[in-house]
Amino acid sequence: MSNEYLNKTEEQQFEDAKNWFKENGTPILLAIILICAASFGWNFWKNHQLQTAQQTSATYQNVMESYLQNPSKNQPLIEKFIADNKDSSYGTFAQLEAAKQAVEKGDFSAAKTLLQAALTNQDPTLQTIARFRLAQLDYQLKSYDDALATLAQVQDKVWELRKQILTGDILVAKGDIQAAKAAYEQAKAVASPQEQILIDVRLNNL
């Protein structure tokens, strides 16, 4: 602080402060307002997102409870939920469950459509689940090349064991025994001792 400022009277200091605020106060006040507004907006958005997620979760639970009690009767209920929540994970959960029910009814075309739609979800775990189930479905439908192509897109190492076992099963069905053996050996390399026993059964049956 300068000597000039110290030598000023209290009244002069007050006048200087008023003049400074007159020149600079509006931008500062505006900045404060903007910061507060941004903070309020962020908190409002977070609270809104939380409330929306909670509502969607509750709706999902109610829809699934009704749907699983009578899938045929309540099919329109789950279809509406999927349409209303197609961009959320809950919508994908519903698609996966509806696909499972479609397979149990033998409606493989509907199941495949639902699983392909589930692949649009950006969550890597949900994408992997959808791909694996789609590959299983194509295997059942004897669309072996489609199943192998879908499995090739499963990159998550957590799924490596299941991926290689299913790959081996598909290759056996295709009659490519050497490739099937290689897939089973890859599965065995990441399997537990108990799982290795089950894989050995497959290898011994080649």
Structure description:
Mean pLDDT is 81; it is low at 1-8. This protein has helices at residues 3-7, 10-69, 75-84, 89-105, 108-118, 124-140, 144-152, 160-174, 177-189, 193-204. By secondary structure, it is an all-alpha fold. It folds into two domains: 61-155, Serine Threonine Protein Phosphatase 5, Tetratricopeptide repeat; 156-205.
Order of helices and strands: HHHHHHHHHH
- Report the structural category: mainly alpha
Write down the domain tally: 2
End-to-end CA span: 90 Å
Beta percentage is under 5%
Assembly form of the protein: single chain
Keywords summarizing the entry:
206 residues; mainly alpha; Serine Threonine Protein Phosphatase 5, Tetratricopeptide repeat; 10 helices; elongated; disordered N terminus; membrane; protein-containing complex binding
